[in-house]
Records
---
Amino acid sequence: MAEKDKIISEKVKRSGIFNFKEVYQFVYRWFVDEGYDVEEQKYVETVTGDSKDIEIKWVATKKVSDYFKNEVKSEWRILGMVDVEVEREGKKMKANKGSFEVKFSGTLIKDYEGSWEKAPMMKFLRGVYDRYVIEARVKEREGKIIGDVEEILEQVKAFLTIEGMK
């Protein structure tokens, strides 16, 4: 079985006006552009009157070598989302209003194919390999995951801020 080390967990939370469809597409495109495969594991919409609550869970993975794989999970919660019309640059546009929260967590997966799990001695050697032989590479990979999570977090914050100001 692969060894998973959770490296970072961050979230962004905003209330106000945003365009859900554009944020959704923006985050998806960011993952794809960075070389991640995105799997939507959950999408639940609950309609109450004229508002919606939405829960989404994505798992984005990226193979970086035959030993390492990056995994970034994102969990979305949109509460009380209603459709609104806003005026931007003299034009009426459709948007959404509500509470928006997305949490990103980054995990480094080592030996994701389970190659070192075939015998107890191999599993022991994997531990030695991780701690002493490729320690610098592990730190480098962890730094890259932290960078990816911080980057998408900042991108989402900036996107929401720009969308809210239009």
---
Amino acid sequence: MEQAAGYASDVAFTPTVKAVQARKGSRRSYERMEQGGSWETTVTPELAEFIGAQTSVYLASANAAGQPYIQHRGGPPGFLKVIDERTLGFADFVGNRQFITTGNLSENPKAHLFLMDYAHRRRIKIWGNARVVEGDGQLLASLMPPGYKARGEQAIVFAISAWDSNCPQHIPQRFEAADVTAALAERDSRIAELEAQLQRLQA
């Protein structure tokens, strides 16, 4: 019988989900996880470091009828900022002006952030409530990445309910183009250095 007190992971593990876990044979292991502390609900130093390195994030929302929508947002490392131990935020740049996420959050604040680090094969899932903040120039300025060529239109503030990390299984390893370019330049520089040494020895 499930405990009435609940766990942080209950944001995702609803009674229906737990019933499926029981039927599929995974409920016992997740019960041990719950009793051992369940999921984190605040930003740890490790999570803050992970967030600060990301250049991409997916924000999921749904309208009042339950129709889901996933929006991609990107920027330089650190564009997604830790406001405090329970709150994240980012500047919402001017885009295609469909405002689907804005409309969804106005009638249903429940939201989800999905952060994928392909290079290190890590992913973080964050559940919570999000709101769009318009007309707060000070907040928007604090969330704008310094020197980034984009125009912030509004801010999105995300209150954390719970977060969890996933195992790396099935995550393809991919690298940022800038990182690959830097690695190739370093390799080419080393090759040129070795070729110069070889020429000196042959001479």
---
Amino acid sequence: MIEHLPDRLDLYAMAEAGRELRGRIDLASLERVLPLLGSPEGVLQVTLELGKSHDGTRYLSGTITGALMLQCQRCLESMEYPLGVNFQLGLVHSQEEMSKLPERFEPLLVSQEPTLVADLVSDEVLLTLPIVPVHTDMKQCQALAAEYHTPDAGKRENPFAVLAQLKQKQ
């Protein structure tokens, strides 16, 4: 087992050799994930296992754990989102190979070698993020909602008052 994540991996060669890698990756290095985060501070723990299954399929499986700071779309405050991703990817070179991949694997189309580890991690993180992040406990958002006061309906001028005056003139 290698206790360091390199920047790039030759996935097929590592799968042939049957390697396991562990390490940390800074959130700031995940360029495609950064626009969705409230803060680029933090580190993710990553474990990658590359190998060849009994049926000859080369695979990449692993876990990503950590915490991300997202913006709650209900109260617009920062919220911590715990991340725990498990994935099992089958390495393929073409669409044709994808159709032959066993169902237990999601396809990973390897178009160029070496592959950036940050891109692999970014893809898996993006797939697990919620479409609309909100606090799981509504009470965390209610403090902000309690401060909001709706405008008084009685004080507003009727937008059709001008039309009513025109109607009276005729």
